[in-house]
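Quick log. Single chain, no ligands specified.
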Amino acid sequence: MQPYIFPYIGYFQLIDAVDKFIFYDDVNFIKKGWINRNQILINNQAHLISIPLQKASQNILIKDTLISYDTTWRNKLITKIEMNYKKAPHFKAAFPIVKNIIEAQEKTISDLAILGIKKIAYYLELDTKFELSSEMYQESKELKKENRLIQICQKNNADKYINPSGGEELYSKKDFYNKGMELQFIENSILPYQQFSFNSFISHLSIIDVLMFNSKEQITEMLQQYKLH
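-> predicted structure:
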């Protein structure tokens, strides 16, 4: 999967479902996607937050996409999160983690996103192993679509590859089966949890929102709410 900044809980359900999670960091950056953006809760509505970048382009690899030189965004983002979540029940546990990630002096959006995902996975006590495609699988970079995925799986002697449900339109189970492995898709289930408002639940927000309103034990249960098919 491409590295996303503070992704929604479904991303972490996928991490929980596998033995090894490979950050696809040597593919092209996706503008207006979720690599450098996500949503938090402000005034009981979804509000977009983003990490400013330098000349972001779909012709540049994610791992080479630089974060803006202007460092003022860090304090602004930290303040925004603090002001809007300081009354959340698990603010004291979650805010230092989020703050530490934002303050990290990473130069690329890939490095910052990966650092954040790893830190949150560590907090949630996930034992999944992480790797970067740019570091471990450079020899397969020129292969297209499922051919690269199959080769990466073969290098790991994997018998099962799990992809987000959106991949059903892209990848064929038969292609993987012919190479001796099973392709499965994860169907995420996002259960409602109590936010500030008792009358509504805003789903698919950043993991930041989940951390602020739920204990580690509650999140562990939420991570199990998926099906493979």
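Strands lie at 20-23, 37-42, 45-50, 129-132, 160-164, 182-188, 226-228.
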